[in-house]
Structure formats: C-alpha cells, structure tokens
C-alpha cells in the first residue's frame, strides 16, 4: 500500500490486488524516519482512477463481446496490467497515532510518501487500547479473533443499538444483558416481543449457571403493585403520561388519593368507590372513572400485599446481579405505557432515595412505549440518578437527535436507507462519512461499534454467537430462507 | 511537377534476416524475446525518466511514397471511377497491426514497447492473437546498442543511431513476421495490413515485403494495405478527396499517377495504388493491392473483400479490431513502467519539464505553442 493523498483527517491509500483489506480495517502508516505511526481506519474501498482505464475497459468489452482469442505475452507484462486494473483506492480516516509504542492523539504531522510503510495494525496495539477490568467477548474482527471490551464503558453511559430489522440488534442486546448480569450488574429489560425470557437457558434448553438471575416479570401475573407501594407521584405520572389524564382531573385525583391515604384506606376498591362518589363535575368524574377502569383491567394493581411485587426486595435479593425481564408480549399499547411509566417512576424513586446504587435499563423497541420527555430525562436526570439506558430500535428517527449527539456508545447495524443513515450520522463520537460508508455495507450480525466501549476506535465487529436461547429470531415459512438468514 | 527523390539514410538501413523459413515458423518470434532481455540486461539501477505526456505511436511504419513532403499529382478524370458490387465469399480474412510507444528516457537511450495483433475472420467467427507487449531499450551508444539487435537479425552499426528510425525498423520487423506467419498459414485469404505496400526506406526494407507478398501469392492469398492517412495529394487536395462526391461503393485507380512521380529506386511500389470506398456512404481510403495482381482481378478482390468482411464506414472490421488490440493505453504504459522497475530494477523518476520549471503556469498551455 502507498500513501496517495491526505486532507484534514482523510487519508487516501493505493492498495494493490494481493493486499487484503476490508472496510473497517485498521492500518498503521509508519514513517520509518520519524519512527512514528498514524492509525488509519479504512471506511471505503474504491477502484483507483488509473489513467487510460476507460480505454482499456472499453477495449476489453469490445473484444470480449465480439471475438475470442489468445494472448502471447512471453514477458508476462499483462500481469502488471491486471494488477493496475484491480488497484484499489482506500479511503481512510485518521483515528490516532502511535508514539513510543503508545497510542496518542497527536496527529498533526504528515507521514512521508517515500519513507512510510503501510501495514495492518498489529492486534497488540489495538487490544492495549481497550482496557479490560470487566471484559466481555463481544465478537471478532477479521484480524482480531477476540474483541474483549470493558463493560465498565457502559456504566454511567447512554447507549444506542440500532439497525435494520433482522440484522442482529436483539442478539447483541442479549449479549450485553447477559454479560452485565454475569458481572453482577442489575438490569431491567423492557421486552416487547417476549424474546429475553429464556436468557437463562442454553440453546438445547438446559438451565445455565446464570439462569436464577434471569427473572421474567409478566404484568398482571407476577408484576403487580399495591397502591401504597406505588405512591401518588408515580401513579399520577402514569395517569398523566400514559393515560393522558387532564390537569383538572389530576388535581381531583390527588385530592381523592390524599383523603384515602388519611383514612388509611388506600386500595383499588376504595379508590374506585371514591371516584364514583367524588364531589366534582361529571366530566371529571367520567375521565377519572375511565382511567381507573383501565388501571383495574390491566391487572397490575392488587390490594393483596402478598401478591404485590417489591422491586426493592427483589433487587436486594439478587445483589450478585440479575436481569428483570419485563415481558410485554401480546400486551396492548396502553398497558405497555402504564407498565413502563410505573417501572421507570419506581426505579427512579429507588435510585433517588439511594435504595438502589445504579441500574442498567434496556429499552427494546423503545419508540413503542416511551414518552417523548423521557428522552431528555435519559440524558440528564436519569444518568445522574444512576439509570443507564440502552435504546434498541430499528426506527432511528424515533430517537431524538440530542440523544445521538450525547450517546456514549453506539452499536450500528446495517442501514441502507439514506434517511436512516442521515439520522444515525448525527452520532457525535464519529464522523458522518464513516457511518455512511461503513454501515450501508454491513452484513447481518456485523456492527459498527462506536464510543467509549472501543476506546473511541470505531470497530466493525462480527458479533459472536450466543450459547443461550435467543428466541426473537425472524421466523420463516420457506426453510431455505433460514439458511440465507 | 517534381519527382520525389529525397531519402533519409541512417546507420541501420541494412536488411534483417529475421523472417524464418516457411516450414519452421515458431508460435512466438523468439528473437524478440531474446532481444528484449538482452537490451534490458545491463540496466539495473538505471534511472528511467518517465515522459510527462502519454504518447503512443498510432501511426504506421509503412512509407506511402511522400516522406515529409506533399506531392502534387495530377488526378485521373472522373470517368475512371469504378463502381463496386460487393460479393460475399467464404474466404478467410486476416488483419495485422502493430504499435509502439516510448515509455521513458534512460541515461543512455530510451525505453520502448511494441505490441502486435492479428485478427482473423473465418466462417463468421472473429478471433484474435495478440503478441506482446515487448519491452526493450534502444541505446545511443552505437556498438553497445547494436549488440542486442543482432538477435533480430540486424547487422551491427557504429555511431549514434537514429532512435526513432530504429524503433520503426523494429516495429517493421515484427509486422513483417506477423504478415509472413499469417500468409503462410492461411490459404486463399485476404491479408489486410495498415498502411501501404510501398517499401524501400531504411526502416521498411523492400526485400521483406517482397517475401511476404511471395508467400501470400503461393497460398492463393491477396495482400491489401489500407491507409487511414496519406500524404499524397492531387490538385492540392488529399488523394482520398477524389471520391468525395461518390456515395456508393467505388474505387479509382491512381497507380500510374502516383508511381510515375517516383524514381524506380530505392522506393518501390510493391502494391497497385487505388482510392476506394468500400461501403455506401463510407470513408474513402488509399488502398494498395499486390502489384502482381492484374487491375481487373484487383477490382474483383476489392468487391469480394467488401462482401466478406464488415466494412462499416468503409474500413474492414478485422483491421479495425487489430488496430484496437495492438494500441497502447495509458494503463498499459504504467504497467510496463512498473514491469521494467520490478523486473529489471529501473528506478523511475519524473522527467524534468524545463519549460514548466522556468515559466511555471505560463509555460505549459497555449503560450507554450507561441
């Protein structure tokens, strides 16, 4: 490989046919006289614009179409012509430098065209850059068979997993969840499709070591709360955000709640009766009654304290790490919103009162149930409280631009749609060119990892297979589709 | 009307013995391979100044009679135009073309490349055989530079050689070898070449062309040369303008008018000269056909050629393809320079443009021409 051109942080290299380079690969451009190197990531591979190539190809086209023949080339000069025709232009981004054997950010120098050698970046240098206090194997790259980033890079961070349908987002999310659980972290997963419930089972159905740490919570079944557990603030938030209760009605509801609380009669049955007998305008009464019926029908409220779930106790009993999988499969959208609002309010309350140290929240198909204001909360208030959210979605435009700008880690799977690429290119941790050029060519199960988790060296990773039952894989009617997938 | 007498003489005007006996034609011109290797042998470590502009030579080695000066030939009257009725035949057609290019300057000479192509048409099937590229050097140091040329059968010379003439001569050798080869292997064929059947210059000796014509005759074939560009002019107009007003296929015999302007020696018109338009609304070309074929038979041969090959725009398809296949592109030039670098250890340096160095942007374009 040879240096062709440098402009800002773009470096163009000529690459000859026998040199094996793929998009996402890291190269080291070492100036032998200066004894320093630039770390360059290949973000696009093009044909080199060789003088006369058009004439050559036209001639080949003409001769291939209308006549056959032989080449008598005793000096084998044609091999050089073939090499030239297949010479590629690598478009690279400078990601850093190597000084005295260590990674540095001093890239304000220009390597010599004559005295530089370009070679694949040695695995040692790259792996050194990834610290590994709480390492987990995310997968491999073509050159590095084991990529073990640090889970601590998810701690206190805001993360996004996004990509087209069927590209492997949920697969990676399951890997992150199980890795966090193994490292003793508390995790809550909003599971829209019921695909995380078997994270504790191996592919052949056996219970795995971490199986007791995977707790499936089904709203109305084992996810139920008593009203005193929930509290007015949480319930009012749920009524307002999930069930769009108007402000006037909310005020009346607060009054009813406080009256019941003073009388020590806080229960669903008492609440229902109090609404019926409330001294207020009929329209407010109707509004409150309609919301109450929805809450009652949801089955997630109980007057029996023995069937009510204590999140605090549950998490305390699993201090060695656990994943609370909130299975919302087959639940209607209103119930999903109620469950999510209740849980977020409850968890925030636990975190604010220091009853819980920190928590990792995975919001699968987040756009289906999270209210708009939550996006802002996630990057400001929640982070300070210790609720570290990972959004998982195939609709990148449902996540606000501010989230992309502030995301600490982004796991990007394939997108080919220009609009989607435009949205995800707002990620602040990497340039838009890298996203546009790399992401559109990613095959399934391969993702571009950006951010702290890869020490800000964007990396194209083949996500490793999981030994657990993943469920959630796309179901096919034609069996040959399975092989393709 | 002046008679054309001027001839360029150079040190390498002798005749080579490169053409093999008819019964021992190799698949490859082995002498060329040896010549290339011998000419490059001592160049390791030498600098090759690559030329700033890509300059393949698309011309022809054939001398059309007017070397460097315009002839004023009195033309035949319009009544001599003969209409051509194309006659399809199953006869094979072979077309031969070669091209050369200079790849750069060496300290003691020049690095060159040569390629040849033969395209045949038999039973409606076009096939090609491409020879080369042959990469070789030509030196300015006479005795030393002439040594490798011995492998081509060229006699040694002393003094500084005319490099351009020498390059034409080498190209001519390959061209004649290919023509000889084709004429030997095909029977009752049309053998088409680029240029003319005029010979007798230092870089285009007549003996070799005579040998090729002789072999073609014995095989029942006919050799026809078609020239895209001629310096011959009639009444201050290009020779081909004689048929400017004709749209149907036709030809005109201008042999007497052309040949009588020249002395019988050294230039020899081994072909009979016509101006022919082989296709309706096609371009007219100067066309030479073996002189030993009678004018009547020659006209019949042209009619058969027009009916056998595709003559879109008046130019035979086989010859068009041979030309395309033999020419060099800029990619070829780069590849051959890389070959010379890797195989023979030449060090490439860009040629210094003195004009550019002195005048910067004011010495490279329009102003450089004035």
Notes on the protein architecture:
- The complex is a heterodimer of chains A (485) and B (370).
- Chain A is an alpha/beta fold.
- Chain A has 16 helices and 18 strands.
- In chain A, 35% of the residues lie in helices and 22% in strands.
- In chain A, a hairpin with a 4-residue loop joins strand 3 and strand 4.
- The two termini of chain A are 35 Å apart.
- Chain B has 370 residues and is an alpha+beta fold.
- Chain B contains nine helices and 17 strands.
- In chain B, strands 1, 2, 4, 5, 6, 7, 8, 10, 13, 15, 16 and 17 form a twelve-stranded mixed sheet that branches.
- In chain B, helix 1 packs antiparallel against helix 2 and helix 3 runs parallel beside helix 4.
- Chain B is globular and about 60 Å long.
- The interface between A and B is medium-sized, with 26 and 31 residues.
Key structural traits:
heterodimer, A: alpha/beta, SH3 type barrels, Rossmann fold, ten-stranded mixed β-sheet, 35% helix, 22% strand, elongated, B: 370 residues, alpha+beta, three-stranded mixed β-sheet, 28% helix, disordered N terminus, disordered C terminus
* DSSP, total strands of chain A: 18
CATH superfamily of the largest domain in chain A: P-loop containing nucleotide triphosphate hydrolases
**Proportion of helical residues of chain A:** 25-40%
Kindly give the count of domains of chain A.
3
CATH architectural category of the largest domain in chain A:
3-Layer(aba) Sandwich
Average pLDDT rating of chain A: 87
Q: From the helix content, strand content and strand pairing of chain A, which structural class follows?
A: alpha/beta
Q: Supply Rg of chain B.
A: 21 Å
Largest sheet of chain A: 10 strands, mixed
Sequence stretches where pLDDT stays below 50 over 5 or more residues of chain B: 1-17, 65-70, 366-370
- Top CATH class of the largest domain in chain A: Alpha Beta
Indicate the low-confidence ranges of chain A by residue numbers: none
Biggest sheet character of chain B: 12 strands, mixed
Strand order of the largest sheet of chain A: 9-18-17-16-10-15-14-11-13-12
Which structural class best describes the helix and strand composition of chain B?
A: alpha+beta
The average pLDDT of chain B is 80
């Amino acid at each position: 490989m040879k240096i062709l051109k440098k402009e800002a942080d773009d470096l163009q290299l000529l690459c000859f046919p026998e040199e094996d380079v793929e998009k996402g690969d890291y190269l080291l451009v070492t100036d032998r006289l200066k004894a320093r190197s630039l770390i360059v990531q290949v973000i696009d591979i093009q044909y080199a614009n060789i003088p006369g190539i058009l004439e050559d190809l036209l001639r080949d086209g003409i001769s291939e179409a209308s006549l056959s023949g032989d080449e008598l080339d005793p000096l084998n000069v044609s091999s050089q012509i073939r090499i030239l025709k297949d010479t590629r232009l690598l478009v690279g981004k400078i990601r850093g430098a190597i000084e005295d054997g260590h990674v540095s950010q001093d890239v304000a120098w220009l390597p010599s065209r004559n005295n530089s050698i370009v070679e694949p970046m040695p695995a040692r240098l790259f792996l050194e850059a990834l610290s590994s206090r709480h390492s987990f194997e995310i997968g491999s790259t073509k050159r590095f068979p084991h990529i073990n980033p640090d889970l601590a890079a998810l701690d206190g961070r805001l993360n996004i997993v996004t990509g087209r349908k069927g590209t492997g987002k949920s697969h990676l999310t399951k890997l992150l969840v199980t890795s966090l659980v193994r490292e003793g972290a508390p995790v809550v997963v909003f599971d829209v499709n019921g695909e995380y419930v078997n994270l504790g089972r191996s592919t052949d159905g056996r219970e795995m070591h971490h199986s007791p740490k995977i707790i499936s919570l089904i709203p109305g079944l084992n996810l139920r709360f008593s009203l005193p557990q929930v509290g007015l603030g949480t319930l009012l938030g749920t009524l307002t955000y999930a069930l769009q209760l108007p402000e006037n009605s909310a005020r009346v509801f607060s009054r009813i709640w406080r009256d019941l609380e003073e009388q020590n009669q806080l229960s669903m049955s008492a609440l229902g009766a109090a609404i019926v007998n409330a001294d207020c305008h009929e329209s407010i009464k109707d509004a409150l009654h309609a919301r109450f019926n929805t809450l009652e029908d949801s089955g997630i409220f109980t007057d029996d304290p023995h069937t009510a779930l204590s999140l605090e106790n549950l998490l305390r009993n699993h201090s060695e790490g656990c994943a609370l999988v909130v299975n919302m499969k087959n639940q209607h959208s209103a119930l999903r919103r109620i469950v999510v609002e209740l849980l977020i309010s409850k968890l925030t309350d636990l975190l604010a009162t220091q009853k819980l140290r920190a928590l990792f929240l995975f919001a699968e198909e987040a756009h289906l149930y999270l209210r708009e204001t939550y996006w802002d909360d996630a990057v400001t208030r929640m982070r300070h409280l210790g609720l570290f959210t990972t959004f998982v979605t195939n609709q990148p435009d449902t996540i606000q631009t501010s989230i992309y700008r502030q995301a600490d880690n982004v796991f990007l799977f394939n997108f080919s749609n220009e609009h989607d690429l435009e949205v995800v290119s707002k990620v602040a941790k990497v340039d838009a060119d890298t996203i546009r050029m790399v992401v559109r060519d990613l095959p399934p199960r391969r993702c571009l990892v950006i951010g702290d988790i890869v020490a800000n060296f964007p990396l194209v990773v083949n996500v490793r297979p999981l030994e657990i039952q993943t469920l959630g894989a796309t179901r096919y009617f034609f069996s040959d589709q399975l092989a393709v997938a | 009307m002046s008679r054309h007498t001027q001839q360029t003489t150079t040190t390498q005007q002798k005749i080579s013995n490169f053409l093999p006996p008819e019964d021992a034609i190799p698949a490859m011109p082995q002498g060329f391979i040896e010549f290339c290797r011998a000419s490059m042998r001592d160049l390791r470590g030498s600098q090759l100044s690559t030329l700033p502009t890509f300059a393949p030579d698309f011309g022809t080695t054939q001398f059309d009679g007017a070397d460097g000066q315009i002839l004023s030939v009195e033309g035949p009257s319009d009544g001599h135009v003969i209409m051509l009725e194309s006659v399809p035949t199953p006869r094979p057609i072979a077309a031969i073309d070669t091209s050369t290019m200079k790849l750069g300057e060496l300290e003691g000479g020049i690095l060159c490349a040569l390629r040849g192509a033969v395209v045949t048409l038999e039973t409606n099937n076009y096939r090609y055989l491409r020879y080369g590229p042959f990469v070789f050097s030509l030196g300015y140091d006479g005795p030393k530079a002439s040594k490798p040329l011995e492998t081509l059968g060229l006699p040694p010379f002393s003094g500084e050689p005319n490099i351009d003439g020498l390059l034409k001569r080498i190209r001519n050798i390959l061209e004649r070898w290919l023509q000889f080869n084709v004429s030997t292997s095909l029977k009752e064929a049309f053998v088409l070449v680029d240029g003319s059947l005029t010979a007798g210059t230092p870089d285009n000796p007549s003996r070799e062309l005579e040998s090729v014509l002789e072999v073609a005759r014995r095989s029942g074939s006919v050799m026809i040369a078609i020239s895209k560009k001629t310096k011959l002019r009639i009444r201050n107009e290009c020779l081909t303008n004689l048929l400017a007003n004709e749209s149907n296929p036709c030809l005109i015999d201008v042999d007497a008018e052309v040949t009588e302007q020249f002395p019988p020696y050294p230039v020899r018109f081994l072909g009979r000269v016509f101006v022919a338009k082989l296709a309706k609304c096609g371009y007219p070309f100067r066309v030479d056909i073996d002189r030993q074929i009678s004018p009547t038979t020659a006209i019949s041969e042209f009619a058969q050629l027009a009916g056998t090959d595709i003559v879109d725009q008046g130019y035979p398809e086989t010859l068009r393809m041979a030309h395309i296949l033999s020419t060099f592109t800029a990619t070829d030039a780069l590849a051959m320079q890389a070959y010379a670098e890797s195989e023979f250890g030449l060090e490439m340096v860009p040629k210094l443009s003195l004009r550019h160095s002195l005048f910067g942007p004011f010495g490279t374009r329009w102003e450089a021409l004035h």
